[in-house]
Task: inverse folding
């Protein structure tokens, strides 16, 4: 007991001395200067995020239009904008910063217009506010993309607020219904789909070296959506190998359909295998074809890279043959 009390007394003395040691005092910094730097760096971060989202939107729009014929009726009218509301920002601090920098409110504000899109041709510009589409008031209950998917008209009538309110009539252009959005996650795989979106992570964006690399990421996920859903039994020792064979085939076919989408959209196809290899180097689990852990609780996705790279030569030969024969670039 005496030893314990002595130890506690020594600890208290040490803490007292540390508190008095000027070397351990909290640095004296100007809070206003810190907040100013936070705003400056945060503003640049927001602008950089928007630049990446614009790249994703440009590639996605191009692929969706080119692939409309292949999407088996799963199409929707496309507008061709990146439009955000204050609520779309992922944190309270960024919501406030976006309000101050971009004047975001509860209404959609156009942040980027895809070159050559229906919105671009109709004269929509960054800074416009989108209020209604074909009579539907956009807002918390009616997000922009779901509203567009529910429209079956030949013309989009968009109410825009610039200096004053105005209605713009935009001829509808159909494309695959699944658009792409950017996630702040640093993962190197797409998070699949959510609410009919392809999710592209910042981690993947950093791996891309060109617009064709980014298009490949999006087109692969669109390839998954173009396939019939594969029924997979619950994970377990008796079903692991059989189901992994299905997943492997699913990944290879998504690559094939994605390459056809890229070819139809006019993207170069050389270097597609290099993109896969670079991702696998950063995420080694994607190299392996069989999960050996009995405790596995979910089926692997976006793996099987060696098999996919080997199969890619066959896909490219198929597309090259169609082009040589002047056949439609459509998967059989």
Result:
């Amino acid at each position: 007991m005496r030893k314990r009390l002595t130890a506690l007394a020594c600890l208290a003395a040490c803490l007292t001395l540390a508190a008095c040691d000027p070397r351990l005092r909290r640095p004296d910094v100007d809070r206003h200067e810190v907040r100013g730097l936070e705003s400056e760096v945060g503003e640049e971060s927001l602008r950089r995020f928007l630049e990446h989202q614009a790249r994703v939107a440009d590639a996605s729009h191009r692929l969706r239009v080119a692939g409309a014929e292949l999407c088996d009726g799963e199409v929707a009218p496309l507008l061709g904008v990146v439009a955000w509301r204050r609520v779309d920002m992922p944190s309270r601090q960024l919501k406030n910063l976006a309000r101050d920098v971009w004047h975001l409110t509860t209404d959609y504000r156009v942040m980027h217009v895809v070159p050559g899109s229906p919105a671009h041709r109709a004269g929509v510009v960054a800074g416009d506010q989108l209020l209604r589409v074909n009579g539907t008031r956009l807002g918390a209950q009616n997000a922009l993309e779901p509203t567009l998917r529910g429209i079956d008209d030949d013309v989009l009538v968009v109410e825009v607020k610039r200096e004053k309110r105005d209605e713009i009539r935009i001829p509808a252009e159909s494309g695959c219904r699944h658009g792409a959005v950017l996630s702040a996650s640093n993962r190197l795989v797409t998070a699949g789909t959510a609410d009919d979106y392809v999710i592209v992570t910042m981690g993947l964006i950093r791996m891309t070296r060109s617009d064709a690399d980014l298009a490949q990421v999006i087109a692969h996920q669109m390839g998954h959506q173009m396939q019939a859903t594969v029924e997979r039994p619950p994970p377990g020792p008796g079903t692991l190998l059989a189901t992994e064979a299905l997943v492997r085939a699913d990944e290879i076919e998504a690559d094939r359909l994605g390459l056809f989408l890229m070819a139809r959209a006019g993207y170069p196809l050389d270097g597609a295998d290099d993109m896969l290899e670079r991702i696998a180097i950063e995420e080694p689990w994607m190299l392996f074809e069989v999960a050996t852990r009995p405790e596995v609780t979910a089926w692997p996705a976006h793996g099987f890279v060696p098999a996919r790279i080997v199969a890619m030569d066959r896909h490219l030969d198929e597309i090259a043959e169609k082009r040589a024969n002047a056949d439609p670039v459509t998967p059989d």
